[in-house]
Amino acid sequence: MRFGIFDHVDHSGRALADQLAQRVEYVAAADKNGFYCYHVAEHHATPLNMVPVPGVFLGAVAQATKHIRLGPLTYLLPLYSPLRLIEEIGLFDHLSNGRMEIGVGRGVSPFELNYHNFDPDTAREVYAEALEIILAGMTNDRLNYEGKHFSYHDVPMELRPLQFPHPPLWYPSSNTKGSAYAGSKGFNFCTLGGVKDAMNNIQSFKEAYVGSHSALGSPNAFDGGVAVGISRQVTVAETDQEAIKIAEPAYQVWHNSLTKLWREHQVEGPAFARNAVDSVEKAMSQGLHIAGSPETVKELLGEQIEALDVNYMIIAFNIGSMAHEDSLRSLDMFAEEVMPTLQKVNTT
């Protein structure tokens, strides 16, 4: 059982330069505490994500860390020139000394895509072409591709990734169809949502993965060759009451940022946004947010790991307006008093 970090880097209310400097310190602490990977989101024109160019932000993180793996979860492929992204991946994989993990997706917010003058209706097919091109470019000396949306002819691939054949690929999904797609392609995988929904998604992934050849990318550290993950928010403090007191206002700020575009346009968000309840108490009742003392957190997360049969948990300790010191203390307490026990759990 392994543990990683997920981060929206949503607006905290502090000066952005200060917040970003603190985030680098936060990831450095995760590195020292033995977390497997730091996964950062990509969103646009929303306070939910203040690093809409994840490669730039992760370049700074790479220089402040030594062991923790790093990567976007996810690159929104329809918004990129595939050739330019191949070059970014190659550069960052060398810059991080082979620590990159590549998350890919098409984007779930039509508003964010529209802000880039991109038609959301074509996102799925553009994503599929872009992924084909990126995989071809990372594994060949020259890139040739002819498709509906992209065309490349005899492009020299001078900047190949350090990892062979390329960094591991990830695909997150909050529904069974996307989960089955991830399994069939051999992606590393994570999901979210309540235990029942997450269980259905994980089952869909596992059933589809059995029929695929192997995991995409260089070998990784997960049993079975692929990550089967769940994402959770976690707040650890000396007592249950203190943890909830810290989590409650921070969660509210995070949730307001999550739903801002949907509220402004007066429409329902995608499933993951609709299912993100509006208080930390509700989130705790569904197992989406775990707040408590180390013993409480250990017990509740252990129950979820066993029920879901996952080998990876991606945790967001730092959300919303949470004080930098509180997030660091939560991370440290988890690493020292919770993680050693849960790492011994045999899963998948």
Task: Provide a concise account of the structure shown.
The chain is an alpha/beta fold and about 350 residues long. It has helices spanning about 15-30, 55-65, 80-95, 110-115, 125-140, 175-185, 195-210, 240-265, 270-275, 280-285, 295-310, 325-335, 340, and strands spanning about 1-5, 35-40, 70, 75, 100-105, 140-145, 150-155, 170, 190, 230-235, 290, 310-315.
What do these coordinates show?
- The protein is built from 13 helices and twelve strands.
- It has 348 residues and is α/β, with parallel strands linked by helices.
- Strands 1, 2, 3, 4, 5, 8, 9, 10, 11 and 12 form a ten-stranded parallel beta sheet that branches. Strands 6-7 form a two-stranded antiparallel ribbon.
- Strand 2, helix 2 (54-63) and strand 3 form a beta-alpha-beta unit.
- The N and C termini lie close together (9 Å).
Topology diagram in text:
Elements: E1 2-7, H1 16-32, E2 37-40, H2 54-63, E3 69-72, E4 75-76, H3 82-95, E5 102-105, H4 110-115, H5 123-139, E6 142-146, E7 151-156, E8 169-172, H6 176-185, E9 188-191, H7 195-210, E10 228-236, H8 240-264, H9 271-274, H10 280-285, E11 289-292, H11 294-308, E12 312-316, H12 324-337, H13 339-342
Parallel strand pairs: 1-2, 1-12, 2-3, 4-5, 5-8, 8-9, 9-10, 10-11, 10-12
Antiparallel strand pairs: 6-7
Helix pairs in contact: 1-12, 2-3, 3-5, 6-7
